[in-house]
Amino acid sequence: MLGLNRKDTTLLIAVAILTMFAPIILNPFPVDSAMAQFNAGYPDLMQRFVIFGIFAIGFNILFGLTGYLSFGHAAFLGVGSYSAVWMFKLLSMNVLPAILLAVLISGVFALVIGYVSLRRSGIYFSILTLAFAQMSFNLAYSVLTPITNGETGLQLSLDDPRILDGAGSAGSLPVTNLFGLEMRATETVNLGPWSWDFSAGYYVCALIMLAAFYLSVRIFRSPFGLMLRAVKSNQQRLNYTGLNSRPYTLAAFVISGMYAGLAGGLLASMDPLAGAERMQWTASGEVVLMTILGGAGTLIGPVLGAGFIKYFENIFSKINDNVLHTWFAVLPDGIEDFLVTIVHPFVGKGWHLTLGLMFMLVVIFLPGGLVEGGQRIGRLFRRRKGKQTDAEADASKTPAE
Amino acid sequence: MSKSNFTRRGVLKTGAVAGAGLALPTYLSAAAHTGFTNAPGDSEVVLGFNVPQSGPYADEGADELRAFELAVEHLNGGGDGGMLNTFSSNVLDGTGILGREVKYVTGDTQTKSDAARASARSMIEKDGAIMISGGSSSGVAVAVQGLCQEAGVIFMAGLTHSNDTTGKDKKANGFRHFFNAYMSAAALAPVLQSLYGADRNAYHLTADYTWGWTQQESIAAATEAIGWNTVNNVLTPLAETDFSAYIAPVLNSGADVLVLNHYGGNMVNSLTNAVQFGLRDAMANGKQFEIVVPLYSELMARGAGANIVGIPGSQNWDWKIENQLGSRYAGTNAFVQSFGTKYGFPPSQAAQTCYAQTLLYADAVTRAGSFNPCAVAEALEGYEFDGLGNGPTLYRAGDHQCFKDVVVVRGKENPENEFDLVEIVEVTPAEQVTYDVDHPMFAGGALGECNPGA
Amino acid sequence: MDAIILQTLNGLDKGSAYALIALGLTLIFGTLGVVNFAHGALFMIGSFCAVTLSRILSYSYEIVDDTRTDFLGNPMKVDIPYVHSWFGESAGQTIIDWSVPLAILFAIPIMLFVGYVMERGLIKHFYKRPHADQILVTFGLAIVLQEVVKQIYGANPIPTPAPPAFTGSLDFGVWLGFDPNTIIYPYWRLVYFFFSAIVIAAVFAFLQFTTFGMVVRAGMADRETVGLLGIDIDKRFTMMFGIAAAVAGLAGVMYTPINSPNYHMGMDFLVLSFVVVVVGGMGSLPGAVLAGFLLGILQSFASMNWIKDILPGIDQIIIYLVAIAILLTRPRGLMGRKGVMED
C-alpha cells in the first residue's frame, strides 16, 4: 500500500492508529484518581510529543542513515520558529504560510551550514555544526534582538500589520488558525470519570507527523536511502568506486534541517512564541538523546525517544511533595513519610535525576534503544506462544500412542 | 476545560476538515456556561505555581515555592495566618477563596521561556489552574504573561525586574507586585549621591539581554541626572562565567565607580572577579573606587560571600525592615515569624513578593465575588492596600504595576549568619520612584482588553 | 599596550582552565577511545571536594548564647567549629582559611577513586559500543552526578575563598616600567596559572620519562600489539582514567576561589572543552594544551572594548568562529592525527 511493503504498511497503520487515538490512550486514568498525575493527554503535551517526534524523525534521516552526528540541529528548529512567528506578525495568522516559510528558511540555513560542515566528517563535523548553532543562539539572545526579541522571545503584538487578515478585533491578540479552524480549539469529552481532550492543533500536528513519517519510510527504503547507508558503513570505499557522496549527504542534511524547521514552525503555530533557548546546545543535545534513546536508525525509535523525554520533562517535574503525600496517604504515617522521603529526590525538582538514570539504564541494558526493548518483549511473547504450541503438539501426540 | 472557538464563518470555511473528527459533541460540559476559562467547581480552586526548580535559580524558586505553600496554608485557615492578620483588607477569613478550598499545582520553568510556557499550559489545560504565579526572570515572566493573556487566566508575576513586564510587554491579565529597574534607579540615585558625591564617573558592565539593557538605561539616566558621567557601557555575554576580561580594563578607564547590571550567577561571578582585581580597595581620580549592584538578591549575595561587604543595591523588601523602620512596614514581622517558624530561616524578597501576590489575588477574587479574570482584574486595578510588608501600596490601573517604597541596602560588614548579609541604608518613598504610565522607558505597548478565555 | 598585556594574562589564565580540562579529556579519549561527556562533571566534583573539605574543617558544635536573639526572638545559637576549640581560635581559623590548598591533597585520592570506579563500573563496558552510546551513557552519568550534588549542596553558588595570603593583587605593571595601578593582577589567578603549568608539565613528564608512561603511549598508538607483548594494558588504561579524573578534579579545586562553585559549572565548561579538544586535534595532548591557551587568549582579546565597538557581539561567538576557521583550514585540528574519530 502506498508503495510500502507489508511490514512498513503495518507500522504506518499502527502509528496512525496510535496518533489518532492518542487523546484516549494517553489519558488512561480517571480525572479524579490519584494516578491522574500520570495522564499525558492534554493538548500541549500531545502537541509536543508529535512535534518533537517530527524533529527526531528528521534528525534520524541524517544520523540514523549516514552516521553524521549533528550537534547543532536545534538551530534549524529555532530558525523555523522565528520565521513562522514573523509570518504571523506580518502576513496572516493562518498557519499554512508560516509553516511553509519555516521549512523553506530552515532549508536554506541547512544548505549553507551543511555545505560548510560536510567538508569534514566524524567529530569534526559535529563540532562544526555545534559551533554554527551556538553562534546562532548567542547572537539571537543578544545582538539580533531586533529580529528575535532576545531573552523574552519573539511574540505577537497588537500593532502587528498582518496584511492579509486586515483589522482584527481590537484589544485582543488574534489566534493561529488553519483557514478559520483555530489551533487552540479543543473539544472535551467526558465519559463517566474519564475526560478526553480532542484538540484541533493536535490533530493538525498529528496528520503532518504521519505525512513526515511516511516520507521518512519512503526515504529509508529508497535507492537514495541505500546510498546514505553506504556512506555510513564505509564512505571511503564509496568514494573509491568513483561516486561523490557529498551531494547525497548534503541532501540528507538539508532534508533533516527542513524537518527541524517544520517542527519549529509547528511549535510556533501551536503557541506563537519563539525563544532563543530553542537553539541552545542543550536543545541540540536533546534531539540526539531522543534519537539514540529510542533507537538510532530505526523508523519508530526517534518518536518513542521524543515521547519518553518530553513525558519526563512535563509529568515528573510536576510531582511535588504534596502529591506524594496524597498517593501514600492510605499508609500509616511513619511509612508514608518514609516513602515520601525515598521518592522525593526523583520527582518534582529532581526530575533531571530520574531522566539521567533512565538514560544510563536504557543504554546499558538496551543497546538498541527503546525499540530493542519492544522487540525483546515481543520476542518473549512469541517464544512463550511457541512453547505453548509445542506443548499442545505434545499433548495431541500422547493419546495416539 | 471545554471551549469551542469555532467562529461561524470559520466553521463554514473549513467545513469538511473540521467536521470529520473534531467537532465531536460535548457531553456533560460543566463549565461551558460560566463564560471564562477553568471556572472552579463548588469545593475547590486550583492555583498554578510556576517556579524555576532546575538551573541556576533553583534555590530562588524553592524559596518562592515555600512562600506559596505558606500562603495557601494561611488562606485555608492553617498556621498562624501570617499577613492575613495585618492586611488592610479583611475579607479573607481563612476559609479558602469564596468558600472554596485552595489547591495548587507546581511546575518547573527551567528559567527558559519555552519550558515555562509549556509548564504553564499544562497547568491550565490539565490541572484547570485559574491563576498562574511565580518565576524568577523577566524573560519567563513576559512569556508566561503573554500565555495567560491568550488563555484567559490571571498572571500574578513573581520576581521580575525588567521595565518591559509592565512596560512595552504589559498585558491586561498580568499584574506585578515586584519593583522594576526604573524604580531601582530612582531609589538608588539620591543615595549614591549622598554616599559618593555628585562628581563621579561610572563604568557599566551589563548583561547582554533585555533585562540588562533596561536596567542599564534606567541607572545611567538616573545617575546622570545627579551629575554623574557615564564613561562606558560594556555588554557581557549571558553565558560568561569568568568576567576577568571585562573587569581588567576598568581601572584604567578613568572611571571611579563600577556598576554591575548583572543578576544571579552573573552577579556573583562578576562581583567576585571585580573584588579579586582589587577594585574595592583601589583609588581612582583621587577618590575611593566604588562598586554598585543595582538589583540585590539575598540568595545570590550568599554565593558572593564576603565580596558584597559595603556594596550598595536596591531591594523590593527586606525581612528586617519592620524592626528597623517601624510599623509603616507592618506585616513583615508577621510573615517572617510564620515563615521562619515553618522553615527555620527568614524569607527572601522573592518569597515575600510571591506570598503577597497570592494574597492579593485571593483578596481581589473575594472582593469581586467572582473568579472571572475580568472581574478580578477590575478589583485589582487602582487598588490601594497596606499591611503586606511594603507599606501603603497602589496597584496602578494604567499598567498593573505596584507602587511602593524601595529599600536601598548595603552588604553588611560583619554578618551574624548567612541570612543576615545586608543592612538597610535608606528607604526611598514611593512618590520618588513613581513615573507616568507613558514614560518613554515604558512606552510601546498596550494592556489590551482583559481576556476571560472561553 | 598595557591593555594587551592585561588581556594576555587573562587569556593565559582562562586558557589554563581550558587546557587542564581538555588535557584530561584527551587522555581519556587517546587511551580508551571513549568520548567522555561526564568530564565536566569531574571538574565540578573536584570543586565540590574543596567545598566539602571546607565544610568538614568548619564542622561545628552549637552553643546557645542567651545574650543575643535570632530573627525569631529565640536565644541565638552560635556555631563553634571544632578546630577552633582544638587549636585555638586563630590557628583554627587559619586551617579553615587554607581549606582550598589543603583540598588538593584531599581531592587527589578521591578523584583517583572516582575515576577508577567510573572506568571499572561503567566505561569499561562501552569500549566496543558506538560513540553515540558512549555519549548517551556518560551524559546520563553527568546529569546524575550534578543532580546528586544539587540535592546535597543546593543550586546556589557556594563562596569558597582563597587563603588571605592570596587575596589581593599584584601590581605587575610596575615591574615592566608602567605607572602603578595600570596592570594589576590577582594573586590567586597567577597561582592558578602556575599550578596548571606544573600539572601539565607533570603529566607530560610522566608520559615521557616513566616506563608506565611509555607503555601507555605505546598503547595509545597501537593497543593490540602492546597487549600481544604480554602487557596488561587494560590495567594501565584504568589508571590513566583515574589520572585524567584527578587532573580535571584539581582544575576544579583550584578554580573555586576564582568563581564560586555551583552544581552546573561542569555543563558550562563541557561544550567549550570539547571545542578546545577538537580544535587541538582529537587524541593530541600538546594540541589540547595549545588550543586551550589559544582560545583563552583570543576570547580575552575579543572582549576588548575597541574590538567590541567595531564588531558588536564578537566576544559571544569568537571561540566558535575560530573553531570553524581552524577546522576548515586544518582538517584534523591543530595537531590531530589521521583517522581518529573521523568515521
From TrEMBL, chain A:
Residue intervals passing through the bilayer: 12-29, 49-71, 91-116, 123-144, 200-220, 247-267, 287-312, 324-347, 353-374
Bilayer topology annotation: Multi-pass membrane protein
Keywords tagged on the record: Cell membrane, Membrane, Transmembrane, Transmembrane helix
Compartments (UniProt record): Cell membrane
A GO CC term attached to the entry: plasma membrane
Broad class of where this protein is predominantly found: membrane
InterPro entries: ABC_transp_permease, LivM-like
A GO term for molecular function: branched-chain amino acid transmembrane transporter activity
Name the UniProt record assigns to this protein: Leucine/isoleucine/valine transporter permease subunit
Automatic annotation (TrEMBL), chain B:
SUPFAM superfamilies: Periplasmic binding protein-like I
Keyword Transport: yes
Domain of life assignment: Bacteria
Family matches, as PROSITE patterns: TAT
Pfam families to which the protein is assigned, alphabetical: Peripla_BP_6
Keywords of the record: Amino-acid transport, Receptor, Signal, Transport
One of the GO biological process terms: amino acid transport
Domain Leucine-binding protein: 45-412
Signal as UniProt keyword: yes
Residues annotated as signal peptide: 1-30
Matches recorded under InterPro entries: BCAA_transport, Leu-bd, Peripla_BP_I, TAT_signal
Family: Belongs to the leucine-binding protein family.
Name listed for the protein in its UniProt record: Receptor family ligand binding region
Lineage of the organism: Bacteria, Pseudomonadati, Pseudomonadota, Alphaproteobacteria, Rhodobacterales
UniProtKB/TrEMBL annotation, chain C:
Localization per record: Cell membrane
Membrane topology of the entry: Multi-pass membrane protein
Protein's UniProt keywords contain Transmembrane: yes
Cellular component GO terms held in the UniProt record: plasma membrane
Coiled-coil ranges from the UniProt annotation: none
Keywords, in A-Z order: Amino-acid transport, Cell membrane, Membrane, Transmembrane, Transmembrane helix, Transport
Principal localisation: membrane
Chain ranges passing through the membrane: 16-35, 42-61, 98-118, 190-216, 236-257, 269-298, 310-328
CDD domains: TM_PBP1_LivH_like (cd06582)
Family of the protein in this entry: Belongs to the binding-protein-dependent transport system permease family. LivHM subfamily.
Name used for this protein in its record: High-affinity branched-chain amino acid transport system permease protein LivH
GN (gene name): livH_2
